[in-house]
Amino acid sequence: MPELPEVETIRAGLAARLQGARVADVTLREPRLRAPVQQDELDLLFGARLTRFRRRAKYLLMDTDRATTLVVHLGMSGRMIVGEAAAPLDAHDHLLFDLIESREGSVQLRFRDPRRFGLVRVLATAEIESHALFAHLGPEPLGPAFSLDHLVAAAAGRRVPVKSFLMDARIVVGVGNIYASEALWRAGIHPRRAAGRISAARLERLRGAVRAVLREAIEAGGTTLRDYRDPDGNLGYFAIALRVYDRAGEECSRCRSAVRRLVQGGRATYYCPGCQR
DNA sequence: CGTAGACCCTGCGCGC
DNA sequence: TGCGCGCAGGGTCTAC
């Protein structure tokens, strides 16, 4: 799936094209996502206007003028596609949103997700933050709440490997598998190091690395990898330079050691044994 | 409590 | 060419 920068890129793309559009119809073709899609929730969208496009962690939040919010998570393989309603259907086009009065007139927004790890809900806008999906989430990595004080307090006494710690949404949201490895490389921290055994100075380096790598990726328009597409359905972006991710055996660009791969929590981690301690 | 592992699902690339 | 295997950017739940 898209990581935070990809979701942010999709959010911006959808906002530019669909802000102000009205939902004329919704078709549910396959309800079996991470949680079953509820028709009674989708019914709340009929006639509603999409007013605001937000993001929280890796969730897309599309507010309507009916005090409801269309919540979409793309999971590993989800995409949002804007096109003509007559466009040929893909086997994994699970939801079709017929929109009118968009900047481009009548268009169809599709949620496509082969692996079906994604999620589509319609919730009361006022209850988003307190909803079970969001209540446990930690600070946004690019916001002021992701402070050194927060990181130091969260890491204190923790024996988890810092890679797993970084990917724990209760600590900070939006740091996925690619950028966790990349941020640790930038900070010179070994992914297996216990979170509670990193000095405040090095945690500050890590905080800066997380923010820098995410910011750069957003600027680059999202890393393009495998099946990722922007809202137009195009593969148009240039990937930011990934220094270790998926580069096992290659030379580290900083110290020339061979990049290694290991598995943590069932996920691949890439790091440089020469310059990450 | 904290942590490791299984699980949800399809598609793709690889080695045989 | 076909087949089986491992692996893939996420998140949640269970068992220990």
Flag low-confidence runs: 223-229, 232-238
- Report the count of strand segments: 10
Structural class: alpha+beta
Shape: elongated
Helix amount: 10-25%
Physical arrangement of strands within the biggest beta sheet: 1-6-7-5
What is the distance, rounded to the nearest whole angstrom, between the alpha carbons of the first and last residues?
Answer: 29 Å
Number of helices: 6
What does this structure look like?
With 277 residues, the protein is α+β, with helices and mostly antiparallel strands. The chain contains 6 helices and 10 strands. The strands form 3 sheets. The protein has a 4-stranded antiparallel beta sheet, covered by helices on one side. A hairpin with a 2-residue loop joins strand 6 (93-102) and strand 7. The longest helix is centred in the C-terminal third of the chain and has 20 residues, at 200-219. The radius of gyration is 20 Å and the shape is elongated. The model is unreliable at 223-229 and 232-238 (pLDDT under 50). It binds a DNA duplex (16 and 16 nucleotides) through helix 5.
